[in-house]
Amino acid sequence: MIIMKKAILLTAVVSVLVITQTFTCFGGKTPEQALMPKINKVIDMLREAGPIEKGELKHKDIYPVVESAFDFRILSMLSLGTNWKRFSGNQKNEFTDLFSRLVTKIYLEKVEGQDLQDIKVEYDKTEDVESGANRAEVHTFVYHDSTETPVVYRMILKSGEWKVYDVVIEGVSMVGNYREQYRKKMFESPESLINDLREKIE
Amino acid sequence: MIKSFRIGLYCIIVAVSLGCFPAFAQDGQDADLSGLMEEYETDSAHSKVPDPLYRYNKVMYHFNDRFYYWGLKPVASGYKRALPGDVRKCVRNFFTNALFPVRFVNCLLQGKIKSAGEEFGIFTVNTTVGCFGLGRPAQDEFAWEISKEDFGQTLGSYSIKQGFYIIWPVLGPSTLRDTVGRAGDYFLTPVNYLKPARAVYGLKALDTVNSTSFRLGDYEAVRQGAVDPYAALKSAYIQHRAKRVNE
């Protein structure tokens, strides 16, 4: 009888687990639901802060928001291409950290001194990518200064969260672009590639 | 009792097969990333364009870089400050409208009959209602879309490869295919038939400065973020053109 009760209890526990997990699985955010609020948050922060002074980034608080939207480790790994294998564990971590800062810095510098009041990001569609991993492409349009720019965010589901691992602007993939640059640097030591990055950020 | 265990076991199987336990699910763990790596590798192999003129191109790259920072950028920045956005938009609309023959003919050459028809409609509406193309009611009111077709893309749609990479002074990055394309489009560009020649150069300069005034900061972003600016620009050009051909 006791064994029977234990069995029923076990089944009940498993069922609850399954139901909650299923709920998180299907009730979880879609790629665009994970991405769009973060984009809007960054835009709001930039608007509130006003024009960025030349050479000075006041928006340190933007980094955490950008970092929460991206998976910089995958982005770094794909960008380095075959070079990634040459890096030690520590070098990989260091590169990822510096590379994330560089990528964020470029995009913040691009908006330097610009009036962002008229900037608008419109969600277009999400396309699932057929592959072993759960991936999706979120298509958006950025409207600024009477110019429309198509921007596609390539996202991956990692530990239950959708993260960006590549941004494609007007057909130009950021990862693809860095990959071509690092392809030529396969004879340089990981340490010198890390130092290059450090110099660019400072 | 056995039945209860069976139900429990069944539930676990269902949960795992639904991919709801992150630890077991194929949710982007390292094992999956090798596939992603390979995908990028294949993409880059497909879009490889040789650079036999590397030494010449490198000189041209530096020339154009200086031309942008010392000439085009200051002029376009001053132009942007001097003219209101609406005026610059009108100038941009005018030049876009004037390139109708290039887009129309290339739509036809690529068998895009619907797009060609739409191009004809846009040109007619914008030239008349839009006051010689200064306005763009066709896009704003009827939501018609311009097809950014040119002869380089037409050749690409015929499966003609890029050839090799070449940087032209002032005009910037190109390939053998796109250079042939540009030469073809030259004859379809109405501005080129104007007399005297000075008027042609004047209008082309205005077009370049005006369109740059909308794109200030883009080149700088690529340049400053790059670990190898020459390779970055080449890759950006090749990828962008490949996307246009595929559209």
Average of per-residue pLDDT values of chain A: 81
Largest sheet: number of strands, sense, barrel closure of chain A: 5 strands, antiparallel
Biggest sheet: strand arrangement of chain A:
1-2-3-4-5
**Helix-strand makeup class of chain A:** alpha+beta
Widest sheet of chain B: strand order?
1-2
* Assembly type: heterodimer
Name the overall outline of chain B: globular
Plain-language structure description:
The complex is a heterodimer of chains A (202) and B (247). Chain A contains 7 helices and 5 strands; from the N terminus they run αααααβββββαα. With 202 residues, chain A is α+β, with helices and mostly antiparallel strands. A 5-stranded antiparallel sheet of chain A has the order 1-2-3-4-5. In chain A, helix 2 (31-49) runs antiparallel to helix 3 (62-69), helix 4 (72-80) packs across helix 5 and helix 5 (89-110) runs parallel beside helix 7 (190-201). With 247 residues, chain B is mainly alpha-helical. A two-stranded antiparallel sheet of chain B has the order 1-2. The termini of chain B are far apart. Classes of the chains: A alpha+beta (202), B mainly alpha (247). Chains A and B meet through helix 1, helix 4, helix 5, strand 3 and strand 5 of A and helix 1, helix 2, helix 4, helix 11 and helix 12 of B.
